[in-house]
Design goal:
Blueprint: E1 7-11, H1 16-29, E2 38-42, H2 50-53, E3 65-68, E4 71-74, H3 75-85, H4 90-96, H5 99-115
């Protein structure tokens, strides 16, 4: 990993599974000297503008996206990029890059990406008036 590199991880904050995984990554990043090399962006927040980020507005909700030094990376390659940054996951990065595992991972992720929208979603609380409602 290039210590000057900057990674932005885009995630679905209303997806229970996605949010848990991102929280795990955040905790791992707090263990390194420069955790600011990775930032996390919830694509479900009202102020998120995918076009401004250089991302297709429909695809960002269908597949994992990251941006590394202004280059958009998606799907399994996005996870590989994340694993290069997150402490304790570099071994997984090296293993999944092996040709047979990479191919199997792409196939598995394609299937998961199709069913992920069917997973239960979180309910975001609204606190605009100072009174929080579910």
């Amino acid at each position: 990993m290039n210590p000057e590199a900057k990674l932005t991880i885009y995630y679905d904050g209303l997806c229970h599974l996605c949010s848990r995984e991102i929280e795990h990554y955040r905790q791992r990043m707090n263990r390194i000297p420069h955790p600011e090399t990775v930032s996390f962006v919830d694509i479900t927040l009202p102020d998120f503008n995918p076009v401004q980020e250089g991302i297709d507005p429909e695809m960002v909700h269908r597949t994992m996206h990251v941006k590394e030094n202004n280059q958009i990376i998606t799907g399994v390659d996005a996870f590989l990029t994340i694993w290069r940054y997150i402490p304790g996951y570099r071994w997984l990065y090296h293993i999944v890059r092996l040709p047979i595992l990479y191919t199997l991972s792409k196939m598995s992720y394609a299937l998961f990406a199709r069913i992920r929208p069917l997973l239960p979603k979180k309910v975001r609380k609204s606190c605009d008036s100072g009174i929080c409602n579910p």
